[in-house]
Design goal:
Blueprint: H1 8-21, E1 34-38, E2 43-48, E3 60-63, E4 70-75, E5 80-85, E6 90-94, E7 99-103, E8 112-117, E9 123-127, E10 131-135, E11 142-147, E12 153-158, E13 164-168, E14 173-179, E15 182-189, E16 200-201, E17 207-208
Antiparallel strand pairs: 1-2, 2-3, 4-5, 5-6, 6-7, 8-9, 9-10, 10-11, 12-13, 13-14, 14-15, 16-17
């Protein structure tokens, strides 16, 4: 259990915040570093465990301009936090200055259910509109739209070579290549009889679903 090392006071505080804030899903945690959580309003919390002492831990709150449920989060090496919301928009905050940087253009037409940032900074988003979109990590401009799934795309994984894996409510996992300015569909992995809700890619390039 990754929470076993946390003091009881901090665990209780997290539980209270989850219940009071109406978290969509659960607090997203990167242990021993910075943790971000999404609430049912257009805001995100950042928790710094290193600053925790004697039951005191106060999150920084990153807020947008309007209320809308946040469904997905991802961070990049250049200190950007990407938040996907129920309206199909992706908002970008600076985790250094605590400011809203931009809202990405050409939003999805339905909720953004998953976000991943690749090693090269490319941002990948999966949506209930059945598409996967790619965005530039430099200026947020749209790069490609991947269309193959017939239902909501619920999860993503990206390999170090740029291979993209997308899981969907249509029970398939699509495999895509991305590189040299283009993206294309390679194949669809079949075998599940229900929604593919989570994907994990090992260092040896084994895909788990």
């Amino acid at each position: 259990d990754p929470t076993a090392w946390l003091p009881d006071e901090l665990l209780w505080m997290i539980l209270v915040q989850v219940l009071a804030g109406g978290l969509c899903g659960r607090v997203c945690r990167r242990w021993h570093a910075v943790c971000a959580g999404a609430t049912a309003k257009k805001q995100a919390w950042e928790w710094r465990w290193a600053g925790y002492t004697h039951g005191k831990a106060t999150p920084r709150t990153l807020r947008g301009d309007a209320e809308s449920e946040i469904y997905s989060l991802a961070t990049s090496l250049n200190h950007a936090l990407y938040c996907g919301d129920v309206d199909g928009e992706i908002h970008v905050w600076s985790t250094v200055t605590n400011t809203h940087l931009q809202t990405l253009e050409e939003r999805h037409t339905a909720a953004v259910l998953a976000l991943v940032v690749g090693n090269d900074g490319t941002v990948y988003s999966a949506s209930a509109d059945s598409t996967v979109r790619l965005w530039s990590g430099e200026d947020g401009s749209p790069l490609h739209t991947l269309e193959r799934h017939t239902h909501s795309v619920t999860c993503l994984a990206v390999g170090s070579d740029g291979t993209v894996y997308s899981g969907s409510e249509d029970t398939t996992i699509c495999v895509w290549t991305h590189g040299r300015g283009e993206s294309r569909h390679i194949r669809a992995l079949e075998g599940h009889d229900d929604t593919v809700r989570s994907l994990a890619l090992s260092n040896s390039c084994k895909l788990y679903s």
